[in-house]
Backbone:
């Protein structure tokens, strides 16, 4: 069931205070004793507000105070208008008088109702704002897009974009590809073809240039089958149970290799051999 629209606090307060019975409200000071409520002389006029005391109010005291105040509200001639005010919203979207009992509802009850209402409301989804094409037309982004038109493998894209064959170039290429997807309002899972299409649509690449680059690269460029000379041997050799590191500039090590196995034994003698040596 949809909630009634909340009034603005200013409008609701005017409706309450202008009501002809407002002067007879239960929480008004009694004319004979301004310290007690007109609706019930056994209730203090302060009962509608939480007292400002160090450490807060004890629970039993608070419950007794709130219960007495709410009982007066129930017999109040402007309870409906008062509750409308207590449920209204300030220009900042907050409840008015956040610590007061209004219209027979405690501050906590009014707050909980507002929170539940907001949680139940559908969250508005903002339409993605397209990034100005000038922001996309950087030298590196355009180079990555041109590299992507020629290659599917990010390592080859990095090389083609002039980012280098090392890990840093690969990382930059991947970062730029991910960034371009976001800036072109594509999902993270967008394919290379979808990214190129979006780039062509935004005028970052020429469609004929993309087609020519793909034709020149051959059918292998369109899919993940394309292999890079920089690809780590770990991925290929891993399927055979081998662990090979082939990062350029670093040592290669193959644990399946008999000679390598022998060198490991030599470098790290077993406890038994150490004891024997001792
Ligand atoms: S409903 Fe309660 S808080 Fe509101 S005017 Fe009446 S007595 Fe006061």
Residues:
């Amino acid at each position: 069931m949809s909630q009634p629209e909340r009034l603005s606090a200013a409008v609701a307060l005017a409706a309450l205070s202008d009501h002809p019975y407002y002067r007879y409200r239960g929480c008004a000071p009694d004319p004979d004793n301004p310290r007690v409520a007109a609706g019930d002389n056994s209730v203090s006029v302060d009962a509608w507000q939480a007292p400002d005391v160090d450490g807060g109010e004890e629970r039993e005291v608070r419950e007794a105070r709130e219960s007495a105040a709410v009982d007066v509200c129930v017999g109040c001639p402007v309870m409906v208008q008062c509750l409308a005010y207590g449920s209204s919203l300030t220009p900042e979207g907050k409840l008015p008088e956040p610590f007061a009992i209004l219209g027979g509802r405690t501050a906590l009850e009014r707050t909980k109702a507002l929170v539940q209402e907001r949680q139940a409301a559908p969250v508005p989804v903002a339409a993605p704002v397209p990034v100005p094409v000038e922001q996309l037309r950087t030298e590196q982004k355009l180079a990555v897009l041109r590299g992507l038109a020629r290659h599917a493998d990010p390592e080859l894209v990095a090389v083609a974009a002039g980012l280098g064959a090392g890990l840093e170039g690969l990382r930059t290429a991947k970062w730029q590809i991910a960034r371009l997807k976001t800036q072109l309002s594509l999902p993270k899972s967008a394919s290379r073809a979808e990214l190129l299409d979006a780039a062509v649509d935004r005028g970052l690449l020429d469609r004929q240039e993309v087609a020519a680059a793909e034709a020149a690269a051959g059918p292998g460029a369109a899919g993940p089958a394309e292999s890079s000379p920089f690809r780590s041997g770990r991925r290929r050799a891993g399927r055979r149970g081998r662990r090979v590191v082939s990062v350029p500039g670093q040592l290669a090590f193959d644990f399946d290799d008999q000679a390598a196995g022998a060198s490991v034994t030599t470098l790290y003698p077993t406890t038994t051999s150490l004891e024997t040596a001792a």
